Backbone:
């Protein structure tokens, strides 16, 4: 499905990363796996360090920290935005919506649309599409999009399929009206028949959490995981990305009439370095145009990785310059999405630490 | 095939890859080993095996791996 928008723009980006940093060498102690093989995995996949919340920290904690940081520094007025969209797979509660919790904790105005969206690694583009759709309303002048997840809390430390790569983070993206003659293009596809490829089986109404769902099971290759934990079919995800993402980006560029060479950066979701290298080669895009260094520094924080890869690699430059970028997200659902836009110059594009708000 | 067997042995030194006809069924390679193998083949032969080719059927034995490499112009594996 294709979308196009006129008169919208991203006007600020803040990433919030947990202060706690854990190394892959520490993770290795939990695996029933020879150290030499773990080290090879580290080298190929790019695993090194990841940022994880302390137990008990929730999505709303990261979001409130980030928004308060922006309010305190005058980078965002607390009454200046008319919608707050939260994209997460790890809400504080089933109900109420976590966006309402954030609104309440910050005592934001009542004349505010709060909206939770359940999306993962494609969730940055999905959230931006929602924000641009809302901006078409006369009453909506500015939208705050929050992508946040704390999925390390739902990942088994003894599952080397997922634990070494997972990271926690939040990102606040300010979206507002822009030049009417500037067009933004987006494309999204979904395939619910493959919904079990990435899943947390227990914890919803279909399979409530019980002592049985919390029990660790040997799921092969010396991995131990419970039904309460995140389950990822790594081979299926890898194949899905290689098959589906390149044609989506090609068709988006064709729709927009933009040559691949004129895109400055392809800012992709960050599953692991190997997958991104193969994606770049398949798309025939120089590796320098697809930054792939997020997993090794921060981990894969699902829908937050695109803001993180943007701020980490281009943060300072984006406050001065403009780039034509193609965002691409892919994951749970299955969902794959891409968006082409001019990004920058931005009043702010930075990363801070939770708790404390120190700049990274 | 000796060069290929050596590359495989660098990933799983505990196995003799010349004796098996199905590395996956015999538990000699898992999905992460396949990825490590692709990275090693890319580096050794200066190629980039396409992501869509990273499927079990190409990595069952020395002959299937050699056939895959042949597609990338690597004949003397």
Residues:
């Amino acid at each position: 499905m294709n979308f196009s928008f006129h008169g919208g723009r991203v006007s600020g980006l803040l990433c919030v990363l947990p202060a706690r940093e854990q190394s892959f060498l520490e993770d290795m102690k939990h695996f029933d796996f020879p150290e030499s093989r773990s080290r090879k995995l580290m080298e190929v996949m790019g695993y090194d360090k990841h940022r994880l919340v302390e137990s008990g920290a929730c999505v709303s904690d990261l979001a409130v920290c980030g928004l308060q940081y922006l309010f305190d520094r005058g980078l965002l007025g607390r009454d200046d935005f008319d919608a707050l969209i939260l994209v997460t797979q790890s809400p504080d509660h089933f109900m109420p919506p976590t966006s309402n919790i954030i609104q309440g904790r910050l005592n934001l105005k009542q004349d505010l649309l709060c909206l939770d969206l359940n999306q993962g690694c494609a969730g940055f583009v999905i959230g931006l599409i929602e924000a641009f759709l809302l901006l078409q309303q006369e009453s909506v002048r500015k939208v705050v999009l929050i992508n946040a997840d704390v999925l390390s809390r739902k990942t088994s430390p003894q599952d080397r399929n997922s634990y070494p790569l997972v990271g926690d983070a939040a990102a606040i993206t300010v979206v507002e009206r822009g030049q009417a003659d500037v067009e933004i293009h987006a494309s999204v596809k979904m395939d619910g028949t493959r919904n079990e490829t990435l899943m947390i089986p227990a914890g919803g109404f279909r399979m409530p959490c019980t002592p049985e769902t919390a029990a660790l099971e040997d799921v092969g290759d010396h991995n131990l995981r419970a039904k309460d934990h995140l389950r990822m079919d790594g081979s299926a995800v890898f194949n899905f990305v290689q098959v589906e993402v390149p044609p989506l980006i090609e068709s988006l560029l064709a729709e927009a009439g933009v040559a691949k060479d004129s895109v400055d950066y392809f800012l992709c979701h960050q599953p692991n370095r190997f997958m991104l290298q193969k994606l770049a080669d398949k798309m025939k895009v120089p590796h320098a145009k697809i930054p792939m260094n997020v997993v090794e520094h921060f981990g894969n924080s699902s829908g937050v990785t695109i803001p993180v890869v943007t701020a980490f690699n281009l943060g300072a430059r984006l406050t001065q310059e403009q780039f034509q970028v193609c965002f691409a997200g892919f994951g749970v659902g299955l969902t794959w999405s891409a968006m082409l836009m001019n990004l920058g110059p931005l009043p702010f594009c930075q990363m801070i630490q939770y708790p404390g708000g120190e700049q990274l | 095939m000796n060069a290929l067997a050596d590359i495989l042995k660098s990933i799983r030194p505990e196995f003799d890859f010349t004796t098996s006809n199905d590395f996956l069924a015999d538990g000699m390679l898992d999905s992460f080993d396949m990825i490590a193998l692709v990275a090693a083949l890319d580096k050794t032969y200066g190629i980039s095996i396409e992501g869509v080719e990273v499927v079990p059927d190409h990595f069952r034995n020395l002959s299937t791996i050699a056939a895959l490499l042949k597609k990338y112009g690597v004949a003397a594996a």
Observations:
- Chain B has a mean pLDDT of 91.
- Chain B touches chain A through 18 residues (CB under 8 Å).
